[in-house]
Structures are given as structure tokens and as C-alpha cells.
Amino acid sequence: MNNAIEVKDVVKKFKRGKRLRKREIFAVDKASFDIREGELFGLLGPNGAGKTTLVRCIATLLIPNDGSIKILGKDIFEHSLYCRKQIGLLTSGERTLYWKLSARENLKFFAALYGLDNKERDKRIDYLIELLDLKDVQNERVEKYSSGMKQKISLARALMHDPKVLLLDEPTLGLDPQFSRFLRDFIKNTLNRKQKKTILLTTHYMDEADELCQRIAFINRGKIVDCKTPYEYKRDLPHSEVLDLRCTGIQNSDALLKRLKSINTVETVTLNTTDGITNVKMILPRAEPMLSDLIELIRQTGKILAIDVKQPTLEDVFIYVTGTRLTENTAEFTPQGEQN
Question: Which has the minimum average pLDDT: 68-77, 105-114, 231-240?
Fold first, then answer.
């Protein structure tokens, strides 16, 4: 099977700071991966990991400082016009449309940019409006739409020229659960399975990546950490259980973290405190033999509200591989020998 996207040692740097003290920030640091034709591929990482920057490089919106990118075997710089015709880009921002225009007017405008003639344009717009259930609102101004409806129009815009490759950057970010379910189903069953489009999906939602993607690359601090199927990630995790504790009244989370990470059989511990509630997550071989000691330890500093023992998820794998969570404001502990 041929590769639809080839990313090789891509580097993208930005300069930050005052004029005389600028320093280079590596948003993407020698990232490499391949996506096969017809594959639904995930790029999973926390906010600020470099996902959007990398997608913009692939979409030719940013020029990398180093490395190469190919779309369907063509270098994006040597054959930029060809590559852009093969790519449809969907971002999570709402300001990708003209709010004073209707949905149909927006699509007509972008169809002209893609070079579609009037007959082909109208046929394509009718098809997309019907496909995305926009017929009743197609002539209303976009400014009156909900976030979900705006995302539908943005997706129709990305599909206007019937691209072979779709770049979907956090497509469900900020959407309500019901519409997020619709969009995930549309991406997986309509765009990927029925229309056979190659899709690169970026997300920091672990369940979304697990549900949709055939393979997933973990990205952290601009680096591609690993690339496997969801099954392979969870199979290769050397621990069988995850212990989640929901606590309140924890006075010193740093001290508790230090005590928990000193336990030999616990490889990974993370603490995350929000609005006085501390969530403790531990990956370990078996939770049951340790429960009484852990409960007693935490009761010395606070109160336990809930205990849950689960099988590992993709987020647990990500924590184990990188030492960081997919959410922010988290203290973390990286096991010996696993620092990347």
C-alpha cells in the first residue's frame, strides 16, 4: 500500500522573547511518520505539543526549518499546487468562515478559490449540504449558527474540491457531546470507510483517538514519541491495572506525590487538583494488594471520595511513555528509564 503522507525529520522553530534576548522554541522537533492511503491516522498529544504546527506544515501554511513532507509521493514545496489540490483542511477555530455570508454563499466563494466551474460548484454544494443536513439553514447567515453548525460548514468547505487527503485539527474541540458523536461517526464511517479518504486527525481526547484511529502517533514537546495501533499500545504496557482515587482536603500534593512515587511497585503516579478535588492516578501490576496501605496513606492528609480500578487506556499509555498527562496543570512522575 502506498503512503498518502510522508513526514521526515520535520523541524519548525519560532523565536520568542524580547528583541535582544530572543530564544528559539522547537514547536516541532525532527518529527517523522508515514500515513498509508485510506488510513485514519491519529496524532495524539496535550495542548501545546506541536500538533497544530505540524498540521500547518503539512498543509503548506507554514514552512518548516528542516525536513521534508510528501503528499501522495510529491514533495509539498516542489509540487505545492498539486499537493494543495489533494488536501482538505479543517481546524477547530470558528473564524474560518465569513459570518456575514450564508452557508451557501461561503461555499460558493471557496469553490471559486478551488477553481470549480459553476456547474461543478453547484452540484458539489448541493451534495455537501444534503450530506451534512444543512438544507434548511443554507441561506441563513453563518453568524446565526451554533458552534456545531459552523463546524459543519467548515467541514463542507474542506470537502468542496473532493480532496483525497483530509487534515482534521481538533475537529470536536468545544463542541457539545451530541454533535461530537455525530462528527466522529461521520469521519469514521462516511469519510474514511465509504469515501476511502486518507485522514490525519489531531486530538488530545484519548477516547476519540481510541475510537477512530487505526494507528496513533504520540507527540510530546514537538517530538514523535511512538507510533502504533491502539491495541499494540495497550498490549505492550507492562502493567495490568490503573487505580484512580478522587480525594479532597489534600493539603500538600507535592509531599503526597513524593510518598506515592517512593512505593516500589508503582511505576507511574500523577496528581491533578482542580477546585479542591485531587485526582490521583497510578499504574501498577495489581491494585487490590495495595489498596489498604494506599487508603491509609491518603487518609493521613485528606479524605477519599471515590476509588476506581480500571484497565489501561491510551492516556495511561501516554503517561507511562512520556511522563505527562494529556491535560494541563498536572504534577507528574516519570519512572526510571522511561524519560524521553
Answer: 231-240
User: Is residue 274 pLDDT above 90, yes or no?
Assistant: no
User: What pTM, to 2 d.p., does this model score?
Assistant: 0.79
- pLDDT above 90 for 295: no
Q: How confident is the model over 214-235, as a mean pLDDT?
A: 92
Strand order in the sheet with 74-75: 23-36, 3-16, 66-71, 74-75
Percentage of the chain modeled with pLDDT above 90? 55
pLDDT for residue 199: 98
